[in-house]
Structure formats: C-alpha cells, structure tokens
Amino acid sequence: MTTEPEQILEDNLLTQLISLGYEKAIIKDETDLLSNLKTQLEKHNKISLSENDFKQILNFISKGNVFEKAKILRDRVPFVNDKGEDKTIELINQTHWCKNEFQVTQQVSMEGKYKNRYDVTILINGLPLVQIELKRRGIELKEAFNQINRYKRHSFASGNALFQYVQIFGISNGVNTKYYANNSIKKLNYKQTFFWADEKNKLITQLSKFADVFLEPCHIAKMITRYVVLNESFRALMVLRPYQYYATEAIVETVEKRSGNGYIWHTTGSGKTLTSFKASQIITRIPKVHKVVFVVDRKDLDYQTTKEFNSFSKGSIDGTNNTKALVDQFADTNIKLIVTTIQKLNTAISKNRYNGTMEQLQDKRMVFIFDECHRSQFGDTHQRIVTYFKNIQLFGFTGTPIFEKNSLTKKSVKKTTKSLFNKCLHKYVITDAIKDENVLKFSIEYIRTFKRKDTKHGVSDVDIEVEDIDRAEVMDAPERLDKITEYIIANHHRKTHNKEYTSIFCVSSIDTLIEYYNILHLKKEKNKHNLKVATIFSYQANEEDRDAIGSFEDEEFLTAAEPKTSYSTDATLRVSNTTVADQTKYRHSREYLDEFIGHYNKEFGTNYTTKDSQSFYNYYNDIARRVKNKQIDVLLVVNMFLTGFDSKALNTIYVDKNLKYHGLIQAYSRTNRILDERKSQGNVVCFRNLKYATDEAIKLFSNIDAKEDIIIKPYEEYVAKFNEAFIELIQIAPTVNSVNSLQTEEDEMAFVKAFRELMRLKNVLSTFTEFTFEDLAMPEQGFEDYKSKYLDLFDKVRSNNLKEKVSILQDIDFELELIHRDEINVAYILRLLADLKDKKPEEQEKEKQRIVDIIAGDTQLRSKKELIERFILENLPHIEDADDISDEFEVYVNKERIKAIKAMSEEENLDSNKLERLIGDYLFTEKQPLRDDVISMMNNRPALKERRSTAERITSKIVKFVETFISGIAG
Q1: Distance CA 532, CA 715 (A)
Q2: Which domains are seen in the chain, by residue range?
C-alpha cells in the first residue's frame, strides 16, 4: 500500500459518497470555496449572479455566529441586482430536501490562528453543511471530536466564516462513527455525540454502513432541514437522535395516511418533549390538519411544556392561562398548535357556555398528542374527548406504558395503553437508553430501618424485611424517622459529591412529610447539618382526603408489588406509641405548608404564600428552578416532582414510600439524566425493601433479563476493577516521581488515560456508603499524589495552547470516561527500541531478546514479528539518534508494504492496482473480499474447480498483509 490507513479511510469514504450521488468538488482553500459557492447558488436558484450580486450575498451570509447563521440558512437572502431590483435567493430547499445540489470534497485548507486541513466536507448548494473528521482504527474516537473543537477555535471562523454553516459533524475511526450538531459553544460536550441506529435501535457504528444510511444525500438533507432544531433559550442547535427521528416519522406517516391512532414508548429521560414538539411542528404543516393539540395533565407541565416548545421555536405557542383562553385559541384559525391541560380541555367541551365555539370544531380534522399518556387517560375524560370530536387522531407518549400486569381496573374493565391508543408506533426502552448512554444506570441501596426481637426463639435483633410490616405505628415511628434523617445527613455529601448535585426525598404521606420536615428543620437549628431543605405538597379543606392530594397516580398503582406476608403480633417493636397522625391531627396541613414556605422565604428572600393559587404556583416554579440550579439540597415530597420533572443536577432520590411498576420507574428516573463525567449513575436509597417491586418494574419496562444493564454492579466488583486499573497505571508509571520521566507525549497520553480510568472508578465507588480506601490496593495519599501529576499535565497542555505547536495531548480529554486502550503495541515497542539505543553494548543483546519475547507473546504484535525483527537487525544499527527511530520505522514499513504488494501481485499474477483497491475496500468495510472480486483482479482466471481454493488462498494473504502492515501500525 502506498498510502496511510487514515488516508485510505478518507479516500474510500469519498468514493462511497460519490457513488451515493454526490458530485466531487476540487476545493483547496477559501478562494475555491467561494467560487464554487457562487456557481452552486446560481445552479440551485436558476439565476445568474453578477460579482456585485454575489458580494452582497456573501456580506449578508458572513455575519453572525453559528446559531445566527443557522437561521440565515433557513431564510431567503436579499440583494439588489444591477437593475436596482430587490431580489432574494434560497440557500437550501427545506420543503423538497432532495432537490438541492450535493457535493463532496476533501482536505480543504483554512487558515485562522493556525492553518488546518479538514478531512471530508459535504457541501449543499455550495455551503459546507456537514464536516467529517476521521482517525485511523485503534485511535480513540474522542480524538476526532477534540480535533473538531480545535478547528472551531482556530479556523472555522476565518475568512468569511462559511464553515460556521456546518450543521452536523461526523466523527469516525472506521469502527465507531457518531454525529452531533454544531454550536457556538467553544468546547462542545462529548456526551452530546450520538450513534445512528436502525428502527429497532440496533446501532450503526461502522463507517461504510453509516455513510450508506445517514449520509445518503436525501437523508442528510432531511436531517438538516427537518430534524435540526434551533433552541432559542440556549441559542443552540439540537439534532434528533435516531429513536426520536423514527418516532416522529412514524407519527407523521400515520397522520398522512389517516391510519388510526398510536403511541410512542420512549423511556423516561430520553428527550420525549423534543420528539413530541418536532412531530407537532411537522403535523401543523400538513394542510388538511386543522389543529394540533398537545395535552398534559397538570398545570405545571402545561407551563413547562409551553416554555420548552417555545424554546424550540420562538412564539410557536401561546400558553393557555384559563379555559376561556383555550376556547379562544381553538376558535383562532391562525393558531395551529395548542398546549393545554386535560382538565381545561375537559371543561371546554363540558361547559354549556363554550358550546357555541367548540361545537363548530367537532368535525374538524385535528390531531391530539398526549404527554405521558398513562397518567390521565384512564378515566371518563378520555372517552368524553373521543366522543365529542368526530374527526381526530390520538397519539400518546409514555416512558412507562400500562400493560395488563400494571393496569387499573375501572368498572371491571382493565384499561391499558394499547386499548386506548391502539398500536405502539416506536419503542425505545430503558435498556436501549442506557446502552446508548442517553441515561444513566441506577445505583440502588436498600437500608434496613429497624429490627425486632424474636421472643419465640429467644433471639434478639433478628433482621426483619421491611415489607413484612405496613403499619403506621412502625413505619411512622419517630425513632425510625429520626434514624432515617440521621442517615441522610451523614451520607448526603457522599451521595451528591459534596453537594455538587441535588436530591429528592419522597415519603408516604403528607403527615409523614410534616414530621420529616420538622425533624430536619430542628436538627438544622441545632447546627447538626447545613442542608437546604424545601418542601411542597397540595392541600384541600377536607383533611380526610389529605393523603390522596398531589398524587400523580392512583394509590393502587403505587403500593408495593410483592404479596404481603403475615406480621407477628408477638414482636416487640422499639417505637413510640404516639403516631405522626396523632401529633398532627389538630392542625391543618395548609398551616404547616405556610410555615414551611415561611422558612423558604427567609432562606431565599422570597415572599410566597398559599393565600392565592398564583402565588402557590409561583412557589412551585421557584422550587423547580432552584433544584435545577443546585440551590436546594433536599426536596421533600409525597408525589409532586416524581414525574414530569427533569433536572440534570439531581442525582439522588431517598425513598420512604411503597412504589410499584411505572410509579417506581418514574420516580427513580428523576436521577438518571446525563450531565457530566462525574455524574456516573443515579443514586436510589430505599428505606423500604422495594427490591421485589424494582425487579418487577425492570422486567416490565425493559428486556426481561436486563437488570444487569440497568442497575450498578455491587461494591465489591468496582473495588476489583479499581485494583486492576491501579496495576495498569503502575506499569506505565511505577511511582509518582516516574511521571516526570515519561519521555514522549504518547507516554504522557497513556498515563492520562490510565489515571482517568482510576478517577472514573473512584467516582463510582465514592457513592457507596461502605466505601473506604482501605479496601483498595492504592492508598488515598497515593491517589492524590498521582492526581497532582495528572493536573500538572493538564496545565502543561493548557499553556501549550498559547504556542504555535499543536500537541497531540490537546486531542486527549482530561475527563473521566471509560476508554479503550492498548497496553502493548507498536508504539510501545518503538519506545523500547529507543531506550535500547542508550544502553551499553553488552546489555543490548539481552534487551533485544526481551523485546522479541514481548512481540511473540502479544496477539496483535505476533503478525508483525518478522517485520520488527528485520527492522532491528537491518536498520536499527544505522540509526544514530534514538529520536529518529519512530520516523525511520515508518519509512521502513512503507517500503516493506510496497514490496509486499508487489510480491503478492507477482506470486499470484494479480493486477496490483486492483489489489490495492481491494485492500482499501477491506479496510473501509471490515468485510473480507468476495470470491468474485478476488477472481476479477487475477490476470489469468483459474478453472472453475480451482477458483474457490485460489480465492481463499489470496484472501488469506490479504488478511495477513493487513494484520502485518496496517492494523496497529502508527499512521
């Protein structure tokens, strides 16, 4: 082979894209880019542009940052032609996305702070809208991501800043391929990169397959024009993930074909709001649809959804403050998209005073989309809606569908999600989301909260399962509640990484909540903790109904799943005879809430009250905001905030209530939103034994055997992993001081990666209550000492950014993340050879043999044994400077590679050009050549009976060639 593996990857991708319909463009620099842009805009708009016309257009489109350019891309660009006429041109056809001009080019050079060359660029109508950066196989994919970050800093804004029009980035090392949206943020988060997948959520990681599916001209144009969302709140671009894409497509297709109703099962935390918004937005553009009505079941979700929808498309909806406003929106023909609560919708179709307006809509074709469709669709309201409107389609979104097993029987009928919404249009369950790293796993701890004396057997302090007892006198005993609060105070800093994150504490009733709050508040006044505790619950005048208020589901859904066992009345319980209910029955819950809100007002300088509904609603929203901003440490609730509330800053939930099925998964899922590398899992601390209920919920809402994929492994396994990672670290740097002696940037990179893995594991371990460094092979001081060296390297890279030289360490992320790394590879051998040069002659032979033994003992290096040994024998003695060894080896391998190609061609009588192409295809697709392809490059075709054996022999030689000269070779 005469070219390097990364170049092969690039060339093959270019060839594949051309075969998919892209026109190849030769663009070396910005001058070529501008010339091509003028030509393509003229072609797309079927217009001839004068130099002055183009200058005006260029001035207009060169303004703004990435977000502003994304808006310009989707609008028409004005100019005044030479005749003085006002004209506009289109940059991209958003309606008929296939009707654009598609080109591909490679190695475009742009010079800003530094000169950079970009690998593969896809141009649509002359604008660079997709940029793909490649790394050779074996290189960490994140290096390509970090390289793009560097380009964003150094050169994307240079010249006329046309590379700021890039909408989607692609990164690949051939084996793994991901995509993500461009943004103005200087350093994007690697967590926002995604694999593409098929409709069944099977990942498409291999570059050639990704190119066939994702980069196909019509599809990539569709992704850009339809499935890139401009978030106004963050002034950022968002691109849909594959499951969001397939769900939206399925809904739109169902509407266009008028083929009934359906529901989307996307697990909690997977971005349901964005999916539902995009589906709603597209449907509003279907002329035959009169309105799209997005229905939620609580006022807070109404507010939250309206805010989020408007952030995706500014002014897309006007929130309905009351039923009259909702009816007015139904009557307004200019309003296509409505967000409202099911309660207001029910009032609008039930009250006589609205009949005049609403009856006119009964036969209009409308689409209703229900958020979290399991919560509010099982009563009479659903039936009332479908009976009232005669020409509607219904679609539901849920992360936790209702099946027969977890259904609620009403009037002897079991209602399920399927019975109400017909078929499931797309499924993306919790195991899919965890596998794709779109949500976190759960770390679940079950804490025993009491013991009992077994008088029958004369044994005291025998463990008792929490589910054995469900009596208020036990579960609400002051001693028990006090011990639980002490546990939370003692462990909260550990669970939340020293209050870097926040928590929810959910309890069984308002009475219990009041008691917990008072205990926590009293302990704070006594300086026993510094946690900021807030609470909220609903109330009503009828205190007998108190426990049901604020419930987001019927109590039947939330009670424990497992069968009750008998409770021995002989047990002597260490509890008080005074129950919480006894202590609180003389005071209305609203009085307590006002008292607690008073504490909140004092803490945060606010002025909320329960005296009017708006102030209480504002209090709710303020709590939500402060939890998201990490200003509240523990939010104490009964049911509120356990569903529909998303906060990436929340990582822990304390549970002292019985939960079941969808209620359990919804509650746990408050903790598992992806945020950063430190937030490695959602922490669930159960003060009741919900293990059976948890196992049942996981079985129901994921794959039947998926528990290991959802729940963090036991503490002991992470201890073992940490100790293994420590051994790997000391192989690179045996002592802290040996970090100073690392010779090359590759050595430093290996240390960074190895210690980064240790940090990741320690991060997980530190959330376990029983964690202590005494369980680890590495002492705590040693960990801190190595961390200092790690941070020194970070500072070194940061200071090197000011220099002209670009360090390879700049493409290494100093964060906590699981990565693939090779211990023994060619680079490692070359370092040994460099060390060999400095040794005395009598030591060299012994060291050479050690190197040969290492090569023979490693599976990857074994195929290169002869190649490396020959280099040691023939070339090493003639290299004077050890620093030249790596470069000399590269030259040597290239020569041997060319000789091997020539030898194979002569031995098998093959066309050498076809052989190189075939090897390139094998590298690109990772699929061994077909027999016909092998035979086609032979100058003399063998007889039919010999073709199979001949093709197998040549294929074997090709595989060996790749293993010897390409796989694992630096290039």
Answers
A1: 29
A2: 5-232 (3.90.1570.50), 242-428 (3.40.50.300), 442-710 (3.40.50.300), 715-811 (1.20.58.910), 826-965 (no CATH)
